[in-house]
């Protein structure tokens, strides 16, 4: 058995920030989950309904692993990433740092993990691995999935080898702090500005605040779009509110990040952004509730109301990001 000592599983919500927290605490940098999410410029929005998709996808964050890259670049961290098509090499890539006393991050498809309650394919799931024995791998996942958990090495191998949307080739990574770490407090404003710039200047209408407006136009027709409305709509609502987003499609995490920032930075635009994202978080929770009710009842009126709120959200989030970009 090989086990990294002192690894702590905390009550976290989002997979990538959970893994980052484990790796960074082991390096001596202890930041809250909202702060990790915000420093990684993690907030975004996408509405996607491609050919062959069984149901539209609504996402509230940047692409998998982009948050990790953003955070490493912003804080001057050494991010060592390994990918391979060889399962044997993939195992060596994770066993080596653990044998050396360091936890390692993994990107995989959660469908195959023994402890996962909901069997849904998602190739952008991220966990921290801190140990293994002959049969099992020891992981830290979100609080929703059990925190400190374990899965069979066979299941882990299948999860890492899966191919499909958002998957990576057995990706593993470690993080090292520089000899003279940068002041993370000094990186808050650049992180907020970069997030706001990307949100306001998204290259296509499916993204950013324009994407929220598009969702406002499309969601009212979801009963007709769904193959099985009683399954598809509540599942979409569940993913928005509880599927590792921290609540309200990641808006709760970003609200809490901005709240933490207001305690460090005295700025009217920052306070305005926080106030608007606090309002947005409440409205996103209302949207997910209405989508679920529409699927359960078949009443399109709930989706019409959700569409109206989404148009309000597009305006609110655009205004919030304009304020935050002025920092």
UniProtKB/TrEMBL annotation:
Transmembrane segments: none annotated. Residues 155-324 form the DUF4872 domain. Residues 14-142 form the Butirosin biosynthesis protein H N-terminal domain. Pfam families: BtrH_N, DUF4872. This is BtrH N-terminal domain-containing protein. It comes from Microbispora maris.
